[in-house]
């Protein structure tokens, strides 16, 4: 595991209606992970209580940011303008998200589903993994995994 890097940032929000919440990543921190202007997958801990997987993304006009979505803000009770203490390190996971056990097992028994999953764009793989992993119960994670594999097979 790569050594973690610490920095402070403020929770901010894009000005447009429904604008996403984010924190700026100092250029010297982003340079440790990002190659050019391509997003880099990292793991992050905010205020020593909320750990998550995310991307350091380039901002239009320069600089970099990390999106802080609603579930993370609710979990950490973070509010607009709050000072955030961040610790980040390179995400070494295969997909940029930890694979739920339910999806992993389904892919082991479904060769066509596995092939289609691996042929999907990385962003699509992460979206599926995220949606499946967010379910609280095992049965719902199983149901969601089956639903996504069925959708892949149907060409959607």
Automatic annotation (TrEMBL):
InterPro entries: AF2212/PG0164-like_sf, DUF1905. It comes from the Bacteria. Pfam families: DUF1905, OmdA. This is Bacteriocin-protection, YdeI or OmpD-Associated.
